[in-house]
Design a protein that fits this description.
Helices cover 40% and strands 17% of the residues. Strands 1-4-5-10-9-8-6-7 form an eight-stranded mixed β-sheet. Strands 12-11-13-14-15 form a five-stranded mixed β-sheet. A two-stranded antiparallel sheet has the order 2-3.
């Protein structure tokens, strides 16, 4: 048989049990909070028609879509989904009977043909944990999304995170303020969205190459890169520009709700340079970072997209949501020492003392499992020392020893692998003792 070299596709990973247990715990926290706010689960296929995905994100993102070699060049050409928002918009358009507002959460992998950056939690295949609400224009919905992000990150133990908030209408107004037509908004947003990775001089160079006048670039610089501009400053700046004024008013309403929901003031801030590079955003946008650890990147990101669903249904439908990056969050928690060593979920290992006692060991293992105690049984009667070593390596706390004497006496010997203490007890006592 020819040997095949075992290798894994660049930008993807295998998850072994110690990592999977942390991932599941984080997802359980998310699901609990999502459901507390009335969000319900859905799933969508990994594969979508290519024309469903393209033209929704912007040129830069469209280049990262994983196209499949399936009926290339036809209307049936397919791709792996780039995010969960566009497929969700398709779902809403295809299921008009859903009650509005409709609130969903979705936890699934997505794929992007990007350059992997493992230290920042950036991979080609990664999980997104999304929440979205469809059918309401109220800023209260946006505030609820931000509140959920704040609650989840707090429960996970993050300190010093900052939820940055802006509004695409303010950015539209900013484009008009610096002297460009609003058709430039997408281009300007994609460029200033890079300011957390590159300097403004590099952004200016890219804009110059696109024939943006230097006076316009200088005016943009005074707003987005020279000190922090408050919402009051933005209101004064955009006075007389209707779209900008509308954005400022939405932000005032949104912040009033956030204050009423008791989110600590230090956990969120207006950030006029926040752009979020995807083209489908239409209103408030938000992103969560760790200012003390800028190399980690954003933990969450999202916003309002009131026109995206209309691409599929022909009817503009208000919608807002956010994505919590499971891989980015887990990577951050590892780097910040927030994770304890993952232990097995098995509580008891029942030993195989000898071939003659195996049926009795099976009986004890079944008794423990029926009582809701996670139990393994060692399948071969090797030396007890080897079985103890197995329990140690897996982090199993208790080992149940069932030898000839215990069977004759109707007892079980339990060894605590942490304290190394042993005690013998009757069969009917062990379950009560283990559940204490």
């Amino acid at each position: 048989m020819a040997k095949i070299e075992p290798r894994i596709f660049k930008g993807t990973r295998d998850f072994l049990p110690d990592e999977m247990m942390h991932r599941e715990e984080i997802q359980n926290v998310m699901r609990t909070v999502f459901q507390k706010y009335g969000f319900e689960p859905i799933e969508t296929p990994a594969i979508e028609y290519l024309n469903v995905l393209t033209g929704k994100y912007g040129e830069d993102a469209d280049r990262l879509i994983y196209r499949l070699n399936y009926k290339t060049g036809t209307k049936d050409e397919a791709a792996l989904h780039y995010d969960l928002t566009v497929p969700f918009s398709r779902v809403i358009a295809m299921n008009k009977e859903l009650p509005k507002p409709f609130k969903r959460y979705q936890i699934q992998p997505v794929w992007r043909a990007d350059s992997p950056q493992p230290n920042q939690g950036r991979f080609r295949e990664f999980y997104q944990c999304d929440i979205d609400a469809v059918g309401s224009k109220s800023m209260m919905v946006d505030a609820e999304i931000i509140c959920i992000v704040n609650e989840i990150l707090t429960l996970l133990g993050f300190k010093g995170f900052l939820i940055k908030v802006n509004n695409r209408k303010i950015l539209n107004g900013l484009v008009a303020y610096i002297g460009l037509d609003t058709s430039w908004t997408g281009e300007i947003c994609r460029n200033i969205d890079k300011l957390d990775k590159i300097s403004f001089d590099e952004v200016a160079k890219e804009l110059t190459e696109k024939n943006v006048p230097s006076a316009v670039i200088d005016k943009l610089k005074t707003v987005v890169s020279e000190g922090k501009i408050s919402l009051d400053d933005a209101e004064a700046l955009l006075k007389g520009i209707p779209v900008g004024e509308e954005g400022v008013n939405e932000m005032k309403e949104l912040f009033s709700y956030l204050n009423s929901m008791n989110i600590p003031k230090e956990n969120f801030i207006f950030e006029i340079s926040l752009a979020r590079g995807l083209d489908y955003y239409t209103g408030p946008i938000f992103e969560t970072t760790l200012p003390q650890h800028p190399h980690i990147g954003s933990l969450t990101g999202g916003g309002r997209y009131d026109e995206l669903i209309g691409h599929f249904s022909g009817i503009d439908t208000p919608a807002v949501g956010t994505s919590l990056g499971l891989d980015r969050i887990l990577s951050a928690m590892k780097q910040l020492g927030m994770l304890d060593k993952a232990q097995t979920r098995t509580k008891v290992l029942v030993t195989a003392f000898s071939k003659e006692t195996m049926l009795d060991s099976l009986r004890v293992a079944s008794m423990l499992r029926e009582s809701g105690i996670n139990t393994e049984i060692f399948h071969e009667p090797v030396k007890l020392k080897s079985q103890f070593s197995y329990a140690d390596k897996k982090g199993i706390r208790y080992v149940a020893i069932l030898g000839e004497d215990e069977i004759k006496n109707g007892t079980i010997t339990i060894k605590d692998m942490q304290t190394r203490e042993q005690k013998e007890m009757a069969n009917d006592e062990i379950i009560k003792w283990l559940n204490c």
